[in-house]
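Reviewer comment 2.1 asked that we show a complete input and output for one of the modelled complexes. We chose the FE2/S2 (inorganic) cluster case, as it is the one discussed in the main text.
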Amino acid sequence: MTKKSADDLRSRRWFGSGPKSTEHTAHALQAGYSREEFEGRPMIGIINTWSDMNPCHAHLRERAESVKRGVWQAGGFPVELPAMSLGEGYVKPSSMLYRNFLAMETEELLRCHPIDGVILLGGCDKTTPALLMGAISMDLPTIYCPAGFTMGATFRGERFGSGTGAFRWAPELVAGNLSLDEWQTLEQKIWSSPGTCNVMGTASTMTALAEAMGMSLPGASSVPAMDSRGHQLAAAAGRRVVQMVWDDVKPSDILTDQAIINAARISVALGGSTNAAIHLIALARRAGSAFSLEDFDAIGRQIPVLANVQPSGTYIMHEFSDAGGLPALMTQLSDHLHLDCMTVAGTTLGENIQGARVVDKDVIRSLDNPVATEALAVLKGNLAPNGCVIKPSAASAHLMQHRGRVVIFEDADDLAARIHSPDLEVDENSVLVLRNVGPQGGPGMAENGMIPIPKVLAEKGVRDMVRISDARMSGTSFGTCVLHVSPESWIGGPLALVREGDEIELDVPNRTIHLCVSDGELEARKADWTPRAPHYQRGWGLLFSQNVNQAHEGCDFDILSSRAPTPEPKIHGKI
Ligand code: FES
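Response of the prediction step:
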């Protein structure tokens, strides 16, 4: 039974009867629509992150047309609203600097227009959390439609599906084992169609989490970008969201504490990106959930990695899709999921995965045959009082308990200038520390956390070391990289107080990270510490610096994560 009539629609405030509606009605007529095409129909906003500067989303214009087809079929009125695209490759200094910008843009696009329901079109890393964060805060009926992943590729017989996967051949180019022609062939293959990275990086992790928490139609996150099922799902989402408007089904009805926990459990079972530890907390807070980094750690201890997908495993997303995709993986975890959670499909998560099955048991593993035991661990100690994270499934087992002398890089520029210097005093037991690359220090917390192995050690065959920073790393990255140290060094966190020659002790099994310096010495260093000059004097950068919270809080703005009610816009038409 529907809960709303045409008179209850939010858009009715714009298009209702009387002189105030004249301007809005006249503009719809100006756009070429006749009255019966919009009057009394739910207006469905399609927030589209298509852009020439985001090849991962190159197909989203056509995808929007499929959404519109579905909306028209169900009696709605579709309107497309372009939004900032955040192409991961081009946006500098980091797309993370602009995640909250897109979140705010999404929320305000919806607020200021006569929108009744929403379809979100995204996929490339930050677009998924950003679109969802804005939509959660606006709390209109919403479905998230992922872009899908690019075509997979092989090079010299090895499969890969991201820039990080390709860059592992860079030393071969430097060593003369690859010709320039071969390198250009590799470049051509990295992303050989529109769509997101073809591994379990941040994009695939976050689109899967959107589905796991109930915000996408079943199976949507496991469909390749160029697969016609993407258009079918887009049209289905268009039809479904119109019904959600009449039924008044909003994100607040879907995103319960249990839905967030489902998403976290799926994240670790996927061997998902460490970036999920930031984005999921931000999403949870927008939804009013108290889900925390500590909760993520507890889940990381309980649930092993089941998806045998790079970077934690062997295969790429196409093979994961062919093996049954996310619905099949969820059947392996069904005892650990809240199957009664409602989803945007109007069915429960349990109903959505009925009939799903694992087609290839090497790609999607069972709980008694996992790929790895832990995808995410949260460490605390005097170096990271509010926590930091590591991805054990993509790290070296022999470095999980390690103590070493630190080699410090003051910032990303210092790192670039000295990391490959033949004079760098470093050995394979050293602990590389990179600071001033956090949310404020970066600025924008770029993916600098996979600090390169110094050339002097790489030439000796060293392939991994303990590396610590307040940065993030790409979801496609790997290595014994401790990330997201909180509080960050830029604001005087303990990472700022580390000095050359100190030792740091990492103990992942016991979840500790310790700077081997006395409390008194740390207090004295803190008294000596002086902040650096601010990056920005004006504009978005200043707004970001003044409002962004720390990694363990999701790097949201406090003014945006607040659940305080925001009034609907006043409408005074021209009379
Ligand atoms: Fe767009 Fe990887 S660069 S998803």
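Residues 153-190 form one domain. We note this here for comparison with the apo prediction described in Section 3.2.
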